[in-house]
């Protein structure tokens, strides 16, 4: 009977995971991975590389920004080197479950749906959903988006939110492309986390206007790891907590985003 129940549970979970476009890779993992990572000496972290100033590729072809700085410091405090892997955002959870990397340090919003198949360390910062148009646009309220073309990043929570509203959407690989398409008039509005777009506006890169979204609530961004890794989770959380306590976190946040975003 016990084996039958286990098979049934696995079958139900398989159906749920398949609906999310993910694999069953983590079901095979029974031991905490921290010891293996320590033996390897390298923490492999993933991000899109398409989300400035949180993570992006600079002119030297280096992945830089707030996320890699946080991930590198966490690895250092765990006695590890870091390897940064860039991958498409819409497949990043699947890659984590397939063990292509150990963690996602890429500004991933903590959601109930994601928490069903992965675990989170953190949150390590907070932001909220925001809607932007070009300055001077006729679109000034959320109600007008029903008749607009809305740009979102493929695989982000904002894509699902826009679909749930029934909006006519275009999907893009990352924030640089999203902002360019808005600037060129190919979409009428974009939906994104507030901080990176506000920073792009502050830097004078884009002349945009914010549409008030009364329903938007703060969202925590967490570090994603595979389930059943309490030792790894505790070690990463301790490193993060220590960074926040000793001022290192604030120094990184000030360098990349202009201030504290906890």
TrEMBL record:
Q: Where is the signal peptide?
A: 1-31
According to the record, the segments passing through the membrane are none
Q: Which InterPro entries match?
A: Solute-binding_3/MltF_N, TAT_signal
Q: Does the keyword ATP-binding apply?
A: no
Q: Enumerate the UniProt keywords alphabetically.
A: Signal
Domain Solute-binding protein family 3/N-terminal intervals: 42-260
Domain of life, per UniProt, equals Bacteria
Entry keyword Signal: yes
The name on file for this protein is Amino acid ABC transporter substrate-binding protein, PAAT family
